[in-house]
Design a protein that fits this description.
- There is one protein chain.
- The protein is an all-alpha fold and 65 residues long.
- It is built from three helices and no strands.
- Helix 1 packs parallel to helix 2 (23-34).
- It is globular and about 30 Å long.
């Protein structure tokens, strides 16, 4: 997902991202607005129980790095 897509999604939740907000920070803000943990890119050992999260696949990829 590109940053412009993240911003667009954030607007749907009424979020405004301050200048300098990274993609990871923005996604974590969206996760909180959705009612999930703000855990993007923090999955330990490639495991995450939040499979309904919009960012699940990308999160696991980034967590492995």
């Amino acid at each position: 997902m590109k940053m412009q897509d993240v911003r667009k999604l954030g607007r749907k939740f009424g979020l405004k991202f301050p200048v300098g907000t990274t993609k990871i920070q923005a996604i974590r803000m969206i996760q909180k607005a959705e009612g999930y943990f703000d855990c993007f890119a923090r999955a330990e050992n490639g495991y995450c129980s939040q499979k309904e999260c919009l960012f699940y696949e990308e999160c696991l990829k980034l967590s492995k790095k």
